[in-house]
Write a structure and sequence with these properties.
Number of helices: 0
Radius of gyration: 16 Å
Largest sheet: 3 strands, antiparallel
Number of domains: 2
Strand order of the largest sheet: 1-2-3
Shape: elongated
Number of strands: 6
Length: 100
């Protein structure tokens, strides 16, 4: 799948700061919700919520989040695994998780 880039302004002087809002990115069965918290002059926090549809046969998932600041990568998180649904219970196992 092609990567999706979402840009969040961090300071009140950055373009788009006053129009900052929650963004949802959906690819296949995976949905990522990005929720910025605004202070008076700065974005004070950015929350990532990952949700996905799960089948009884198992649903593989994977995501690669890269955070850039000033054109340089500040952080990266890569996760992959599989989730299974049994009745009302969902269990997930991670195959790989890498930070860096």
């Amino acid at each position: 799948m092609a990567p999706r880039t979402v840009t969040f302004p961090l300071r009140s002087s950055d373009p788009g700061f006053k129009r900052l809002r929650t963004v949802r990115v959906k690819k296949a069965g995976l949905q990522l919700t990005l929720e910025p918290e605004l202070g008076e002059n700065l974005t004070t926090a950015l929350t990532f919520v990952v949700a996905m549809g799960v089948s009884p046969h198992g649903s593989p998932f994977g995501y690669d989040l890269s955070l850039f600041q000033g054109g340089r990568r500040a952080a990266r998180l890569r996760v992959s695994g599989r989730c299974r649904r049994t009745g009302g219970l969902v269990t997930c196992s991670r195959r790989r998780a890498r930070v860096g």
